UniProtKB/TrEMBL annotation, chains A, B:
Any single Pfam family the record assigns to this protein: MeaB
Example of a GO MF term: hydrolase activity
UniProt keywords, alphabetically: Hydrolase
The encoding gene: meaB
Protein name according to UniProt: Methylmalonyl Co-A mutase-associated GTPase MeaB
Uppermost EC category: hydrolase
Length: 333, 333
């Protein structure tokens, strides 16, 4: 490892506050680089950081734009810092590569949290596929853990498949909902409700009757899903819960953290937290292998040369799709 | 092309009834073979059959075991033969590779249809992954079209991802439901409701009140999904419908076919049927490429040699998942 990287490693894992913060940013920038030599250095650095990772609680938070994620995460972050925690906030915004900038990137969204010395906020990587953005976020999460942040929050907007990516890199997945009927159906439809370990109905103070209705609907939906997995009275298994809160008024933030802590204790005690992480790591390895295979295939000279004509043949119905696939695979080898 | 295959081709596309039926079975058997020389012959045969394909209507039908698919397909098939059609029925049963035999394989399920000279029934291929089973079914569908069956029905049980595979190879996807609340929620949850161009509530005569409730729920769910795609009053766009019927009593079969015909007319007139097929062909090509890449990767000697140790490293947290993925990809090349 080059001396500069060894110094970076030392600063991330045990530096003083200010150089440490700068070292985290530098490391993440290196991880996000697409240059091959940077990538090789980043891989070495990542492996060297690994023994220092894994000691945080990883909390995923998802919700559609306008649900109040930033307000909630700021309130939660300040609450946690008050309890003595150090909090990192990362984001996955799959739209950022389209818009050229992250809609979650504005640190001023979390004005008080972002200037706190016990907090570290990093916006979404702003280029690449969802898989690439998720990979860089996942690696940033490891850097934050190695730097001693003991709560890492990964947030995402409810568009595309980013919820699955976030649920796949966190210990607990929280879905934020507005007190609207229909909102739940969308979440069920998209398969996001199924991922949720906890559903939070924000802005519950605005229309209490609607919030109560939404809560009943979500509870019954969660129960129905649960029926296919577990016994309803098995208390060694976490049953997803529904909470109401008002992030703006900071109502319900302590109850939220209480529930998260119950979940964490149960999952730790039963070994399911460690099991979930092992499964995530292996799934992640395969996800990256698949993405890499696709990228290599599509950039292969012989494939690139013959693909347009073969695709036209398939579209015009002169070559069967499966035959075209076999020909392309033969060209690749 | 060998003389035997040329003869097969001629028999499939313009033989007399009995040798034609035998030629179809022989061709499909060749397509299902895993021998490399068979596969090469099958590819040539498939491409030669292609100009004779595409003239049928491809109807996908899905539903959980017990919903009454066989009874319905028999009633529908006999109805269609009465109207002068020739009907082929294929099946995708992803569980057949586990159980060693297709639960849909029993031709006696459709006693009257299976012996009719205007019908051809083929059970699910009984080995391989869902992707492999779907590929062989998709190719069998082309053979049936080349043999002049002008309605091809592809049925599947509502387990696993087989519904997506069937919707991806048919012109219209029909979901059969029982008049149960909860049944719809499961379909919404699994993302199957979204695929449906038509939802059929079978056994509606047993509990009319429940069927009416289910119909209202499904209608409102379909409307909510539709809101995100199309204008509700755009009549150049198909809006998924819900029908009640009783397959056992053959009630509603003619209304069902009437609705299917309206759909087919609209999709043909607007060009969406041709567009859907082109999209399916291309998606299928890529699906097969991806599956082939994965298979080649996993059977690559260097990958096989190093995978177990690297996977252990990832599980034990000594190598980062993304680093392990990059190493495996480098071994592959």
């Amino acid at each position: 490892m080059p001396a500069a990287d060894a110094a970076l490693l030392a600063q991330v894992t045990c530096g003083d506050a200010v150089p440490r913060r700068r070292a985290i940013a530098k490391t993440i920038t290196l991880l996000e680089s697409t240059r091959a030599d940077h990538r090789a250095r980043a891989d070495d650095l990542l492996n060297a950081l690994l023994p220092h990772t894994g000691r945080s609680f990883r909390l995923g938070i998802s919700g559609v734009p306008g649900v109040g994620k930033s307000t909630f995460i700021e309130a939660l972050g300040l609450h946690l810092i008050g309890l003595g925690h150090r909090v990192a906030v990362l984001a996955i915004d799959p739209s950022s590569s389209v818009s050229g900038g992250s809609i979650l990137g504005d640190k001023t969204r979390m004005e008080r949290l972002s200037v706190h010395e016990s907090a570290y906020i990093r916006p979404s990587p702003s280029s690449g596929t969802l898989g690439g953005v998720a990979e860089r976020t996942r690696e940033s999460l490891l850097v934050c853990e190695a730097a001693g942040y003991d709560i890492v929050i990964v947030e995402t907007v409810g568009v595309g498949q980013s919820e699955t990516a976030v649920a796949g890199m966190t210990d607990m997945f929280v879905l934020m909902q507005l007190p609207n009927a229909g909102d739940d159906l969308q979440a069920i439809k998209k398969g996001v409700m199924e991922l949720a370990d906890l559903v939070v109905i924000n802005k519950a103070d605005i229309d209490e009757a609607a919030a109560t209705r939404a809560r009943a609907q979500i509870t019954s939906a969660l129960r129905l899903f649960g029926l296919h997995g577990h016994q309803p009275h098995d208390d060694t298994v976490w049953h997803p819960k529904v909470l109401q809160l008002s992030a703006l008024k900071s109502h319900g933030v302590d109850a939220f953290w209480q529930t998260v802590s119950e979940y964490r204790d149960l999952q730790t005690r039963t070994g399911r937290l460690a099991q979930r992480r092992r499964g995530q790591d292996e799934a992640w390895m395969w996800e990256r292998v698949d993405a890499g295979l696709k990228a290599r295939f599509r950039s292969h000279p012989a494939v690139r040369e013959h693909l347009p004509a073969l695709r036209d043949d398939v579209r015009q119905g002169t070559v069967a799709a499966s035959v075209a696939a076999r020909r392309l695979l033969d060209l690749f080898h």
